C-alpha cells in the first residue's frame, strides 16, 4: 500500500495527517489546494497501534521531508501530530491541529 503521496514542488516542508480510523486519504483535497503554492506530503498510516503509527510517521518524515516539517493534522491526525511532535520536537517546525477533539 502506498503510504506517502507528494503534491507540488520541492521543498516538501508541509505534511498532512488524516483522521481515522478509515479516513485514509481524506486530506487529498487539502493537499491539492495547498500544492499550488507549497510542496505537500500526505502521510497515510497503516500501523495498528499508536506507538506503531508514531514510528511509521518518523520513518516517512525522515525518508522524504525537508526538515523541519510543518504538520497539519485532522481529527486523529491532529492527535498523531501532537504525539509525534512531543517525541520528536526537533523534526517539527509548526503543528496545526484541525478538529482535534479534546485539544
Automatic annotation (TrEMBL):
Keywords from the UniProt entry: Hydrolase
Highest taxon of the lineage: Bacteria
A UniProt-annotated Pfam family: Abhydrolase_1
Molecular function as annotated in GO: hydrolase activity
Domain AB hydrolase-1: 68-100
Transmembrane segments: none
Protein name: Alpha/beta hydrolase fold
Amino acid at each position: 500500500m502506498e503510504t506517502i503521496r507528494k503534491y507540488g514542488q520541492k521543498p516538501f516542508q508541509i505534511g498532512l495527517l488524516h483522521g481515522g480510523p478509515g479516513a485514509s486519504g481524506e486530506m487529498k483535497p487539502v493537499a491539492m489546494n495547498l500544492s499550488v503554492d507549497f510542496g505537500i506530503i500526505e502521510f497515510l498510516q497503516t500501523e495498528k497501534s499508536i506507538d506503531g503509527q508514531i514510528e511509521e510517521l518518523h520513518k516517512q518524515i525522515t525518508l522524504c521531508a525537508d526538515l523541519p516539517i510543518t504538520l497539519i493534522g485532522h481529527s486523529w491526525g491532529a492527535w498523531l501530530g501532537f504525539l509525534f511532535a512531543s517525541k520528536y520536537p526537533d523534526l517539527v517546525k509548526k503543528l496545526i491541529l484541525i478538529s482535534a477533539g479534546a485539544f
